[in-house]
């Protein structure tokens, strides 16, 4: 397990600055290379592909469990054999360490 995945999310109700593009890139280097920083550097995104709907929903349920435990929730786009995951910290309208902590935890979900 990497260092980010071992961390817990910290409550964020706003009042802090979002990560800079440089800081986001440093954290991005610590998670799967499949995650991408968006053009505005205010979100990270990854697409997952599956063989069928059952596997897609199994992944979504595992991700939902992580999101609830960490109290940090991504935006999801879900279809028959895919799930697109976007993390951003809505309270600060940008990225926080929480986004990368949760992405690192999502990276640990077995993909079958």
Could you describe the 3D structure shown?
Helix content is 36%, strand content 17%. The protein has four helices and four strands; from the N terminus they run ααββαββα. The mean pLDDT is 96. The protein has a four-stranded antiparallel beta sheet with strand order 1-2-4-3, covered by helices on one side. The chain has 112 residues and is an alpha+beta fold.
Summarize the structure.
This protein is α+β, with helices and mostly antiparallel strands and 112 residues long.
Using the alpha-carbon principal axes, give the shape: globular
Q: In percent, how much strand structure appears in the residues? A: 15-25%
Number of helices: 4
User: Biggest sheet: strands side by side, in what order?
Assistant: 1-2-4-3
Order of helices and strands: HHEEHEEH
How many DSSP E strands? 4
- Which residues sit in consecutive blocks of at least 5 with pLDDT less than 50? none
**Percent helix among the residues?**
25-40%
The biggest beta sheet is recorded as:
4 strands, antiparallel
Mean pLDDT: 96
Terminal CA distance reads 19 Å
Rg, Cα atoms, Å:
13 Å
Structural class: alpha+beta
């Amino acid at each position: 397990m990497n260092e980010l995945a071992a961390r817990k999310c910290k409550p964020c109700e706003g009042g802090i600055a979002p990560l800079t593009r440089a800081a986001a890139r440093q954290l991005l280097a610590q998670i799967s290379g499949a995650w991408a920083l968006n053009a505005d550097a205010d979100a990270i995104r990854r697409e997952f592909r599956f063989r069928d709907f059952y596997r897609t929903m199994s992944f979504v349920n595992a991700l939902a469990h992580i999101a609830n435990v960490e109290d940090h929730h991504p935006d999801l786009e879900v279809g028959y054999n895919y799930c697109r995951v976007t993390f951003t910290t809505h309270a600060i309208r940008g990225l926080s360490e929480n986004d990368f902590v949760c992405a690192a935890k999502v990276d640990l979900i077995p993909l079958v």
